[in-house]
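Sat 14:20. Reprocessing the chain from the morning session after the first attempt stalled halfway. Input below, unchanged.
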Amino acid sequence: MKRIKGLWIVLLTLFLSVANIYAQDDVEGLDLSKEQQQLLKSQKELLKKNREAFKTSLTPEQRAILKNNALSKSERQTALKKTLSSSQRNIIAKNTASVKQAKAKFRATLTPKQKQLIRKRLSNNKGRAKKNIRRNVRRAKNKRVRN
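Finished this time. Tokens:
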């Protein structure tokens, strides 16, 4: 059960927060080399391919769960998690492993100055992310109370 929870957390990270992790369009000031730019481009393509592979494996029932707006986001995720087949779980595990590998490959090419700039950006955004999460949770609670 713990393994499935861990797998689900990785799935959520992969499919829901990939945009935040890989905000490649905002790489100003990093002075990326051609090789690094190519790595980022290939990572984006890999993510798109992985996402498409997972989406095509979804059954109509699973798609209906994802489109059901009556459920909250977390309820949809748990409902979907319960319906995943072993082949879909394997797809998720492979996707997670390939993303980790791609990230490690990119990190290995970073210079100390680039690493420092990235750390600085991440630390600047930490407070905002927590504030946004709190705000979104409050909004969701208020919506449920009103409905």
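The chain has two domains: 2-22+29-110, 111-147.
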